Each structure stands twice: as C-alpha cells, then as structure tokens.
Amino acid sequence: MPARIAPLAVTAFTATCAAARGTGALAHALETRRSGLTQNTFSTQPLECRIGRVAGIEECTLPGELAAFDSRNHRLAWLGLDADGFRERALAVRERFGATRIALVLGTSTSSIGETERAYRELDADGRLPAAQRRPQVHQPHALGLFVAHALGLAGPNLTIATACSSSAKVFASAERLLRLGLADAAIVGGVDTLCDSVLFGFNSLELVSSEECRPFDAHRRGLSLGEAAGFAILERMPQSGKVEKGTNLLIGYGEASDAHHMSAPHPQGLGAERALDDALARAGLRESQIDYINLHGTASRQNDAVEAALVARRFPATTRASSTKGWTGHTLGAAGILEATITLIALERGMAPGTLNTRELDPVCGPQIRIDNSEADLRIALSNSFGFGGNNCCLAFARGDAA
Asked: Hey, what domains does the chain have and what are their CATH numbers?
C-alpha cells in the first residue's frame, strides 16, 4: 500500500458548467436542484438527447494576444478562468513564486477537436486546410495546456493528461508528485472539455446516450447526458505551522489504477476502481467509516453504475452519504474530475451533501449510501470518484481544513 502523503492546501477553486458559472451559482443550483440539462440543439445533425451546454461560449471573444488559440474549448477555458476571480488568484501565485515555479497540470479528453472538425469541413478543393485553420497550437492534444500557460504567463512544468473521463481527477495526483519532488512550489490544476460532434455521435454509436435527462443509479436508467465544463484549482504546500487560512480545504489523498479490462466497459467486479479507492484511503490515512460523503462517477450507464454501486455498498457503512451530480451538469468527460472535485469541495464548505437529481427509483444493487435527496450534514472528509475508458480510475480524498 502507498505511504501517507502530506496534505496540500486547495487555496482557490472554480468551475463553470451548464448548471452555473462560478462556485456560488453552482452551490445555489445544487441546493435548489436546478439542472442545467437542455434539449440538444448543438450537433450538426439531429440527435435526440439532453445535453449540458454552457451559455455564452459563442459570444466569448479571446483577447488579441490569445486570438490565434481560438476554439470552443479555449473560449470555455477563458470563461472558466474568469469565474470566481480565479485568474487574479493565479497571477498572484505566479508573482509570489515566479512563473517557472508554477506547475500547470490540466486534463482534457477531446481538447479542441471541435475546431478540427470545423477545419475539415472547410477544406479547399485540393483538400488543404484554409489558411486561418493552419494552427498547430490548436489542432493537438496539448492545446489546452499551451493556451492556459499563455493566458497566465506560466513557464514551469506543463502537463496535459488525457485518460478519458478520469483526466482532470488525475491532475491532482500528478501535481502532488511534482510538489513533493520539489519540481514546483505551487500547481494550477484543472480541466476543460467541450461538446462536439465527435463526442455526441461517438457516445451515441456506443448506445450510451439517453434521449431523456440522465438518471444515475435509477432502476430504469437509459444512458448518459453529455455536457461541457471548465474548472481550475490551486494547490500549495501546507505552511510550516500546519495551519491554513480559515475555509481552506485540503487534498489529503488520491488513488489511481488501470484495470485495462475492456476498451469502454469497467471490470465487472470493479477491481480497478477498488484499487484506486484503497490507495486513496491509504495515502490519506483513513478508514471507510471516516468518509462522510462520496461524489460518485455515476454516469447513468447501466454497467458502470451497477459496478460502482456494488463497490460502495460492500465497502462503506450506511452512514456514508453518496450521490452522482451528473443530473445537474451532464457527463463532462475530461472535465468531470475537476467539476466534481469542485462540487465535493462546495459540499465540505457548505455542509450540504447533494443528492442524485432526476433519479426516482434506485437500482436494487444500490446500498443505503446512495441518496436521491439533498441533505445537510457536518461533512469533514469526502471522496470524489472518476472512472475513464480503458478502466483508468482515480479517487480523490479531500478534507475540510479544520478536520484534517
């Protein structure tokens, strides 16, 4: 088992998704159970489904010095950096430590592939890209990292993680290692993914997309609702005093595993997910009975939900609250990890465990841990699960600053 890690302070965090822009608005959406899912009017061809589309992306204009990076993904990243004053907080950290001592670790599943789709639709008669689309800084998997580094003026380690739906959960693990090894003095982590035809029709070809709002863990669930989101957080070492500013939450553990059982299906007994859970608990020095809330991956796909529900039922006491929040946001793919980590941090701060929106009748495989309704509680320790294609799993452990 891995050794316990030193906690890291989460000194700022933000998220932008279909349900809300910024943590205050997102908390309000969670508390009032207001979903961001709407009828699909996005795809270039008809597809009957509900999606989590972020308003305002089409109207967003990047500043002149960043115009060459223009894409839907980077516009959403810019909107995300604007929320909660995050960009100002990031620039302050850069001034404190220096541009070369800030690590940037971001997750994305599709990067700016939506812009690449557009570029191929604009090929000239000879099959060449138009001049305006000859932008190698956009049409590549690392585009998001390049864009955010330029936007924030960073020159330190810059990593893009693309492990499907666990991408922006695993950024916390990579950042912890960079800080522990002394390769950086602070880390900006996050993730951005946007809707595009490749995502919508790709998941639809796998028969995973529902024509109605997703209903995670429902006995009659029909599949997922796709969404888009941007989220960011700042991680710093704990001060020597061991005390952090009031209200600061902590990253206290993480676990990663890849069961490689199947390209798109999880291991039927959840072995990879369970190993990630075990490693997260070990690094945090925790027992299952100490976990107050779990934000589950819970996509509303039949197989994934059943595996995760069975794992939670056999490992955690009935007092642990657990839920999926994808009924508010949709499944935001490479941005799911950071979005749901943000929701987990909001839950710790506000003492409110979200329920599972849209779900009406829990699947019999679910234990008493999985809740439909929101509930107020003294939440001190929480987990956030993210599971990706290929069995690439990640579990994060967070603590309220006064509870670590």
From this structure: 8-400 (3.40.47.10)
